[in-house]
């Protein structure tokens, strides 16, 4: 299989033969790229395989995974295709690299967060957990997609209190929906615009290490 997406893969330097590693797939925001996402998770590069997935649609100097009719209104056909293709890519990468299929994580910002939450709802327990930064779940996903249980899927969702792209109200609505899907939800607000603060990064890095069983309590 030739993957539909270009991607960067970072394997731990001290890769042990025969060992399976937890993996983080990163999905960037609209107009960005996979390399911009690596800095958010670079501190985990010795413990996780990190795979940065680049959107396949050029946009300015960056990329996107799907186009929009307007803010918060994805073009449905393109969105559906992206969800299908990204799920196929996750399975592809699991076969290509020494990935522990029981510890697969998605981490996305903005458009990438939207896709991460959608994939969690469509893949269910095929994923261990997701980190969704400043995103939302489209109504058509909730109403029309075939959804799987999130009961055993861990979710870290965060939002900027002063987000000028997706107002904080959307963050609260997203958290309320996710609370009805999983008891393994951590929802945090940060005093920021549409971005990721150092405190936000520190919190989700700690959360990922704990959830993947790499630490047993807070450092």
From TrEMBL:
The keyword Hydrolase applies. Keywords: Hydrolase. InterPro entries: AB_hydrolase_fold (IPR029058), LYPA1-2/EST-like (IPR050565), PLipase/COase/thioEstase (IPR003140). GO terms for molecular function: hydrolase activity. Coiled coil: none annotated. It comes from the Bacteria. Residues 27-199 form the Phospholipase/carboxylesterase/thioesterase domain. Belongs to the AB hydrolase superfamily. AB hydrolase 2 family. PANTHER family: LYSOPHOSPHOLIPASE-LIKE PROTEIN 1 (PTHR10655:SF17), LYSOPHOSPHOLIPASE-RELATED (PTHR10655). This is Alpha/beta hydrolase. It comes from Paenibacillus rhizoplanae.
